[in-house]
Specification:
The chain has 751 residues and is α+β, with helices and mostly antiparallel strands. It has 23 helices and 27 strands.
Length: 751
């Protein structure tokens, strides 16, 4: 075993050249001299094994501690030192084991005697190594306290320990290697580690390597600097992995000779503070980003804070406004009104702490604003008022525009040739107007506030109530009714707001009594004309047949006696008579659409189409036409008349195919309200200017030499589709083919 001497008490061997004290002396004599010297020295000398248990002590140790030699032998050093000091001592030992550059430290500890007294002692020790294996320590303990000083130190030590252990902030002490040698209970609870786990551990255990390195650098930078302490913010990683935001303020420990001995620091959990700061930052962000102006006014009417929006509103910078008086931006009367509202707020008498007023801008303009107020005490206990100011220029303009618009609509309603009314979901009229009221001798006031149940007979209500109700499902309806012995046309429709939500229904009414009478007379006239056309057409057929028959008889009997011109004249006459016969036949069919049409029933358009294709089989074969069709729907209608429509459209598509092989396509589109059937060809097409007149009677676009026909087929189609409550039209370009389409309502409104 080798030992380094302290105070000349030990040496490597009797032959050591450090001293002649042992020279020429036998080993047993040396041992006796050593034991005598150890026991007469006032300082306590001890030896600990590698586990920290006493294996040797001198008389001074027994005297200083008050424990017997037998009690000390085998006892752990923690018998005398608290766990913090034991941890510090172990930390020093670990440092010594990790380095060859060793300068034995002088430590100060308060040992606890057998009488439970605290005695301040100075300790110097070294390690006992055998073949580089740690075997324990040997040390010198000196009592450095007098009786009075000891009592004072014990009291202070107790006070300090109490303060350190009861303070809410975490307190720690690190040695030169940034290892914990002291931690208080608050730090233990903050980190979640036990005191035993922390003592001797590197501080990176709880703050990580980067933070511990940075803190160590800052601590070293404080040596010789003007600042006494440094502060660092970092997350503490608890034993369970949770992270706590913390702020640590620390200062280096410097020995009497100016050497760095470690660091002492105070750690505070700043979770709550950070939360408050984040909350404050959030509100500051809100205040600075809202479009409304925000200000704070002190008790004397001076601005103490404004946001950027308020400054922008007035054309100043925030700095220019802060310190200005309220009277600089509003009239004195407004300022006084605001103070009165402020008093009402304080007394709890204000339900609506707001005020409309104009404010003066830097440019001398005046802006209409609306301000709402709140009152709160400031740090100086004086009352302050916070206000939120909104520029209502646009709102005022909208209000004016709304008033003007309302007046315009009121004028329109009052001068509407019929009657207009708005009603709510209870079918109560909220608005009414129109010239019809005057003719019926009804005032607006009679209508507004009344319901349809109060205004109309029960049988009329029963018929119109479904239309009024459907409005709130988004439906519009048109219907005719009789009221006050007159005929009326009525239209109900939903009224929506800017969000497209239905908030009311509208009823528009027009008196159509005279129109109905006129329509009745027209229908009677048309009926007479149809009867005349039918009779005339029917009566003309017999003379035409006679003319045709005699012309054919002349042709047979006298053909050989006629020259070429004569025979040609006969042919022209016969052809003209035949064409007239076809025209009369077409005219008869045209007049029969209303008179001899069948009642409507469910019609399968696929069947109608197939029958027409069969009828046109010869024409299809002769022209080598290709006709394709999608599946067609069922409709309500007259099957015979719809067959005529298909026959005319398909026949025309084949006839007007030009020089190309006829290609005909039949398609349909169906929705909830209508069916559209289209017949498309790739033929000669139709000029845009002619697309309306082809549906008129006897209108032809080509000569008889170019294409045969009477010019009544499309007019007949138009008449049939009209009877079915639909419409027919064509889309075409010359040389690009034509698409004839007709629309039929899903619920037929035809006759």
């Amino acid at each position: 075993m080798t030992c380094k001497s302290y105070y000349g008490l030990m040496t490597d061997s009797p032959d050591s050249t450090e001293s002649n004290f042992w020279a020429d002396t036998k080993s047993d004599a040396v041992l006796r001299r050593f034991q005598a010297l150890v026991n007469v020295i006032d300082d306590g000398i001890y030896q600990l094994d590698s586990t920290g248990n006493f294996v040797a002590v001198n008389d001074s140790i027994v005297e200083i501690t008050g424990y017997s030699r037998d009690r000390l032998f085998g006892a752990h050093v923690s018998l005398l030192l608290n766990e913090t000091d034991v941890g510090h001592m172990n930390s020093v030992i670990q440092t010594r084991l990790q380095t060859d550059d060793w300068d034995p430290p002088t430590l100060e500890f308060a040992i606890e005697t057998a009488d439970r007294e605290k005695r301040l002692c100075e300790l110097r020790f070294d390690l006992l190594l055998e073949d580089e294996i740690y075997r324990g320590t040997v040390g010198v303990l000196r009592d450095i306290s007098t009786t009075a000083n000891r009592i004072k130190c014990e009291q202070k030590l107790t006070q300090y320990e109490t303060i350190v252990e009861t303070i809410e902030d975490g307190i720690y002490v690190l040695n030169e290697d940034s290892r914990f040698v002291v931690v208080n209970q608050a730090y233990v609870e903050m980190t979640g580690y036990s005191r035993e786990e922390l003592l001797g551990s590197h501080c990176s255990l709880v703050v990580g390597t980067d933070v511990s390195t940075k803190a160590a650098e800052q601590s070293m930078n404080l040596l010789g600097a003007d600042e006494d302490a440094a502060t660092i913010e970092a997350d503490i990683v608890r034993s369970d992995g949770a992270e706590i935001p913390a702020e640590s303020k620390f200062t280096p420990i410097i020995s009497d000779n100016g050497e760095f001995r470690g660091t002492v620091g105070v750690v505070r959990d700043v979770s709550e503070r950070n939360g408050r700061e984040q909350e404050l930052q959030k509100y500051e962000t809100i205040v600075e980003t809202v479009e409304d102006g925000i200000y704070v006014l002190d008790e004397n009417g001076y601005l103490t804070m404004v946001n950027q929006s308020f400054a922008d509103m007035l054309g100043y910078s925030p700095k220019e406004l802060e310190g200005a008086h309220a009277a600089d931006i509003v009239d004195e009367g407004v300022h006084q009104s605001a103070k009165e509202i402020e008093e009402e707020i304080v007394q709890g008498d204000s339900d609506n702490p707001s005020l409309e007023a104009t404010v003066k801008t830097a440019a001398g303009d005046r802006i209409p604003t609306e301000a709402t107020f709140a009152v709160f005490p400031s740090e100086s206990k004086e009352r302050e008022r916070v206000g939120v100011v909104r520029d209502i220029t646009e709102r005022k303009e909208r209000e004016r525009a709304l008033e003007e618009s309302e007046q315009r609509y009121r004028t329109l309603i009052d001068h509407f040739p019929g009657a207009v009314g708005l009603y709510n979901e209870e079918f109560e009229y909220t608005v009414a107007g129109g010239e019809l009221f005057e003719s019926l001798e009804i005032s607006y006031d009679e209508v507004v506030g009344s319901t349809i149940y109060e205004r109309y007979p029960d049988d009329l209500v029963e018929r119109i109530e479904p239309y009024f109700k459907a409005v709130f499902d988004g439906e519009s309806n048109t219907f005719e009714e009789q009221y006050h012995n007159r005929d009326f046309w009525a239209h109900t429709l939903p009224v929506r707001n800017s969000d497209c939500d239905i908030f009311a229904g509208m009823l528009m009414v027009q008196d159509i009594t005279e129109r109905k009478e006129y329509q009745r007379k027209i229908e009677e006239s048309n009926e007479r004309l149809e009867q005349f056309a039918y009779a005339a057409s029917h009566d003309l057929r017999e003379p035409l047949r006679m003319i045709t028959s005699y012309l054919q008889l002349v042709d047979r009997r006298y053909r050989d006696k006629l020259d070429e011109d004569g025979r040609e004249f006969i042919e022209f006459a016969v052809d003209g008579a035949d064409r007239m016969q076809d025209m009369i036949e077409g005219l008869l069919n045209y007049s029969r659409v209303e008179r001899q049409g069948n009642s409507f029933e469910s019609v399968d358009l696929d069947t109608v189409f197939e029958n027409v294709v069969d009828d046109l089989q010869v024409k299809i074969a002769e022209s080598n036409a290709e006709i394709s069709a999608e599946s067609l729907p069922r409709v309500q209608g007259d099957a015979g008349q719809l067959r005529q429509v298909f026959q005319n459209l398909l026949s025309n598509a084949i006839t007007y195919s030009g020089t190309e092989k006829p290609q005909v396509y039949v398609t349909s589109v169906i929705d909830d309200e209508e069916v559209i059937v289209s017949v498309r060809d790739e033929g000669v097409g139709i000029n845009v200017d002619d697309q309306n007149r082809i549906f008129e009677v006897f209108q032809r676009l080509h000569t008889h030499e170019e294409y045969s026909g009477t010019g009544i087929g499309l007019a007949l189609c138009d008449r049939i589709i009209e009877r079915h409550g639909g419409d027919i039209w064509v889309e075409s370009e010359p040389g690009e083919g034509s698409t004839f389409s007709f629309m039929l309502p899903t619920t037929s409104s035809g006759r």
